[in-house]
Amino acid sequence: MTAQSAKTTATPAGSPNFHYKNGVLHAEGVSLAALANDLGTPLYVYSRAALATAFTAYQQAAGSHSVLICYGMKANSNLAVLKEFARLGSGFDIVSGGELARVLAAGANPGKVVFSGVGKQVWEMQAALNAGVKCFNVESVPELKRLSSVATQMGKTAPVSLRVNPDVDAKTHPYISTGLKENKFGIAIEEAAEAYKLASTLPGIAVVGVDCHIGSQITEVDPYLDALDKLLKLIAQLDSMGIKLKHLDLGGGLGIRYDDETPLAPKVLLDRVFTQLQTRGFGHLELVLEPGRSLVGNAGVMLTTVQYLKLTEARNFAIVDAAMNDLMRPALYEAWHGVLPVAPRTTEGVLYDVVGPVCESADWLARARTLSLEQGDVLAIESAGAYGFVMAGNYNSRPRPAEVMVDGDRFHVIRQRETFEDLIRGESCLP
Ligand code: LLP
């Protein structure tokens, strides 16, 4: 037995848009068996309705308050996904020039874009200034100085929030915790007032807000409230220094249900945040949020086909056609993803490790799951809509999977499966 406990996942965990109908797993009205058959596997499948449901939960939680949701697009940056969120009214949290280019390619409004990230380069600052983003979330004093000089040279003014590191424990996996002192992110809260003072005197900089992002897959409200408390104290201090802010960005990080977690609902968080803002005299501030995973995670599955069943003395392996290069989360974080047979068998299951064909022992997708399998069966790896395809690579010269968006009883291929030609594009041999 591995670190993961033996269990069967008989029913879809995260989203009602994935459900069994006549013994076959469906995304909305589309059979996943048919999709796997028509388009091959591995295959990412998203539900358009699930995206809308997740976004609406934030909108409803916002109510009549001034809230801008900037989708943390690193979670899933397919153009069709971006376009859908833009249509629903979302802004975007970007972390690179490439993500900015995607936002623009999707036809979204750059005035609703916040630009995060610790390593912004000159060309990225220039592109964002030319596009007219809402705000740069500046993560260090050297970055602030560079932005000032880039903006001044362009004859522009850069709207700025400082990303403050509030030193709170998000109580999540260490790799996805970002608000602790030892993390590389943000400006230490104790040094923030001094950095704001500098920002307010630098040419080409307009101070507009404050920002933090404490981590990801957070299921408790307290870390957010701790961070908010520290931010509000800072805002009050800035106020007394004559530095007036327009918005407060609390970042993303709300968790989803992979297994048996109880996710923090946007409304639970926002009700508490609004109460704090009102009672402490900050009701005028616009609230910005940067949710990624909670908008897309349970809106997607990855389909994969069993190639071989290898029964050994120590373990049973289901060797499938998807691997760590297609879905990296288990290898990187020992992340748990549900595994559902697309057409479940009635025979009793046995314990399997679901592994890929890549030449690494870390190449596993799930461990110790009770499954009843035959060669050729299709499995759905759940909760793969966030940090799935975007983290895929070509290790072992494996083309990346196709992506499909289901919409009611129709589906659209929103990214073709890569070909061998795609893999070697740009390579050349010596003369
Ligand atoms: N804003 C900033 C500045 C971020 O760094 C992130 C995520 C987000 C927003 C969105 O966070 P979310 O709402 O998705 O938790 N690859 C990891 C997750 C890395 C998250 C990085 N930052 C995983 O697969 O769990």
Structural summary, described in words:
This is Diaminopimelate decarboxylase. The protein is of the alpha/beta class. The chain folds into two domains: 158 residues, Lyase, Ornithine Decarboxylase, Chain A, domain 1; 248 residues, Alanine racemase (TIM Barrel, Alpha-Beta Barrel). 29% of the residues lie in helices and 25% in strands. Strands 4, 14, 15, 16, 17, 18, 19, 20 and 21 form a nine-stranded mixed β-sheet that branches. The protein has an eight-stranded parallel barrel with strand order 5-6-7-8-9-11-12-13, surrounded by four helices. Strands 1-2-3 form a three-stranded antiparallel β-sheet. The longest helix has 19 residues. Bound molecules: ligand LLP.
Keywords summarizing the entry:
globular; TIM Barrel; eight-stranded parallel β-barrel; 12 helices; 2 domains; 29% helix; 431 residues; alpha/beta; nine-stranded mixed beta sheet; decarboxylase
> How big a fraction of the residues is strand?
15-25%
Distance between the termini: 53 Å
* The CATH C-level class name of the largest domain: Alpha Beta
- Mean pLDDT over the full residue set: 95
- Overall 3D shape: globular
The count of domains is 2
CATH superfamily of the largest domain, called what? Alanine racemase
CATH architecture assignment name of the largest domain: Alpha-Beta Barrel
Low-confidence stretches: 1-9
Assembly state (oligomeric): single chain
* Continuous helix count: 12
Residue share in helix: 25-40%
How big is the Rg? 23 Å
* CATH fold name of the largest domain: TIM Barrel
Q: Can you list the ligands bound to this structure?
A: ligand LLP
Structural class: alpha/beta
Give a quick account of the main beta sheet: strands, pairing sense, barrel closure: 9 strands, mixed
Tell me the total number of β-strands.
21
Organism: Sheuella amnicola
InterPro entries: Ala_racemase/Decarboxylase_C, DAP_deCOOHase_LysA, De-COase2_C, De-COase2_CS, De-COase2_N, Orn/DAP/Arg_de-COase, PLP-binding_barrel
Keywords: Amino-acid biosynthesis, Decarboxylase, Lyase, Lysine biosynthesis, Pyridoxal phosphate
Function: Specifically catalyzes the decarboxylation of meso-diaminopimelate (meso-DAP) to L-lysine.
